[in-house]
Write a structure and sequence with these properties.
By secondary structure, this protein is an alpha/beta fold. It has helices spanning 18-29, 45-53, 92-100, 106-122, 142-152, 176-190, 214-222, 251-258, 261-269, and strands spanning 6-14, 35-38, 59-64, 127-132, 202-204, 229-234, 273-275.
Length: 282
């Protein structure tokens, strides 16, 4: 394999809904998606597993969950992680506040995340990597637990979601909060043990999270280096995925961008090689 850029295109949230599952596999079958991350807690987990079994070329990792959904180990065993209704906090920000106040039990985090990894393994999935829903896997303390679980389960690759601030991110005041959030995420990454684990050289996709249409995808690709390994995070789905809560993702537009012949031509023109998480260098 040549020394050009190797691009991992990873679709998050596999299992969250049938519409997202369909969008992910369509973007793999007809587009540039090479890897995905499955949610063991999600409603359409079994549907996702069935689709993955039919696609041996699609690398599948575990999308570790500590927000929005419900714990596999039950609310009583995850008491410090759940709200009175038994569900996780709705967003990373609430979980972080609890963690910084010392209200989150890392033993409970370990038990829950271990259960999620075990459920994926029990389904016959060869786990290619670990990452986190809303990037919960890089939170202080949680990152150490994730690193330990990766070693215990023999999973060698873990997402390191530190995205360099690039010029195009500073052009719109409308999305300034996204840049601030990325800067905070970068700080968490830098102080975590994840930096020492097997990972891609760079990560992109947070800034355009949920709005990676063809134009934005072209912008991202134009800003990539010419060598090394880069992970591109994406969120494809199909038209059946309706907006929910505070999600305003353009799932179908992302799927279409990832299947665009023009985007594939851009990859070829720049000599980028599509690889999966399973091919991340040590």
């Amino acid at each position: 394999m040549s020394e050009g850029l190797k691009l991992i295109v990873n679709a998050d949230d596999f299992g969250i809904s049938a519409a997202v599952n369909r969008g992910i596999v369509e973007a793999h079958d007809r587009g540039i998606v090479t890897s995905t991350s499955i949610m063991a807690t999600a409603a359409e987990f079994e549907h996702a597993v069935g689709l993955a079994r039919q696609r041996p070329g699609l690398a599948v990792g575990v999308h570790l969950v500590l927000t929005e959904q419900r714990p596999l180990i039950g609310a009583a065993a995850a008491a410090s992680l759940v709200r009175p209704d038994g569900s996780f906090e709705p967003h990373l920000k609430q979980l972080l506040k609890k963690r910084l106040r010392g209200l989150v039990s890392l033993d409970e985090v370990r038990s829950e995340l271990d259960a999620q990894i075990r459920r994926v393994r029990a389904a016959g999935i060869a786990i290619s990597h670990l990452d986190g829903h809303q990037h919960v896997h890089v939170l202080p303390g949680v990152a150490r637990v994730v690193a330990e679980l990766a070693a215990a389960h023999g999973v060698s690759a873990v997402r390191y979601p530190a995205e360099r601030i690039r010029g195009y991110m500073l052009r719109s005041a409308k999305h300034a909060s996204r840049v601030v959030e990325q800067a905070a995420l970068n700080l968490f990454c830098a102080s975590s043990p994840l930096e020492r684990l097997r990972r891609s050289d760079e990560f992109v996709g947070f800034y355009f999270g949920g709005r990676l249409d063809e134009a934005n995808l072209e912008t991202v690709l134009a800003g990539l280096p010419t060598r090394g390994t880069v992970e591109l995070m994406c969120h494809p789905g199909d038209e059946g995925m309706q907006p929910q809560d505070d999600w305003h993702y353009a799932w179908a537009a992302e799927r279409d961008a990832l299947m665009s012949p023009r985007i594939r031509e851009l990859l070829l023109a720049r000599g980028m090689q599509l690889v999966s998480q399973a091919k991340v260098r040590a």
